[in-house]
Every structure is written in structure tokens, then in C-alpha cells.
Amino acid sequence: MEMVETQKNEYKVIEFSGNLDTATSPDVEKRVNECIESGDLKFVFNFENTKYMSSSGLRVLLATAKKLRGKGELKISNLNSVIEEVFDVSGFSSILNVYTTEEEALQ
Known about the structure:
Elements: E1 2-8, E2 11-20, H1 25-37, E3 42-53, H2 55-68, E4 73-77, H3 81-90, H4 92-95, E5 97-99, H5 102-105
Parallel strand pairs: 2-3, 3-4, 4-5
Antiparallel strand pairs: 1-2
């Protein structure tokens, strides 16, 4: 799993590539928590290059959304067909803010 972070307007954009699974989700959660603790409260997670996401990855997203509730924002963008199917089957498409493109999410 590779994470590339950029700042765009008031959003911390994190682009994920590779697999977000049991092996990688602890590192992702740790890094996101560090960002939140340092004051980043608005995120766009871009999953265009994510090849696989397990329930551990979904748990990280849910935990992040809960931490930001009422004080920040989590937006999801660029779901490829594999990750979109995971979101649809799990119901995450209806509980998280999902955008077709990163540009749309940044508006």
C-alpha cells in the first residue's frame, strides 16, 4: 500500500494504491490519526489505484468518519470498479460521501 498525501484547498487528499487490507490498514489508520491530531479535519480519500479492500480497510474508513463527525469531513473519490463493488455490497456507498472524481469532492 502506498499513500500519497497532498494539500488541496482546505482538504488533505490521500491517494491510495495497492491493497488496503489486514496487513496495511494499521499503518493507514495510524497515519490518518496523526493527520487528525495535527489539525487536518477535512479529507478526500482517492481510491482510483486501489486494487483490493478488505473489511479491515472498511473499518479504517468507518473509524475515520466517526472521529471526524461534527468537526470535520471525509469524502471518498474515484472508486474503481473493484472498490465500487466493495462499497455497494457493504452498504458504504450510502453511509459515506462518495464522489465520482476528486475534483467533484473538492468542491
